[in-house]
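name: query_chain
kind: protein
chains: 1
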Amino acid sequence: MSAANVAPIWLPVEEAAERARVSKRTIYNEVKHARLRAARIGGRRELRFRPDYIDSWLEQSVQPVEVRRG
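structure:
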């Protein structure tokens, strides 16, 4: 099977939260405030996320931390 025939991966909320290492509440809150892209399935409230949506959101949310040594 070629890469063109591979279906994209869509993560449920639980797996999106695991990927980002945050709570499900954080995922729902970020979607609510339009900071995290998601897809609604079949007009229901169920959300799905592409892994690249999660990765992009994390990159945009990064806050540099200064580490002091010695």
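note: The beta strands are 39-40, 47-48.
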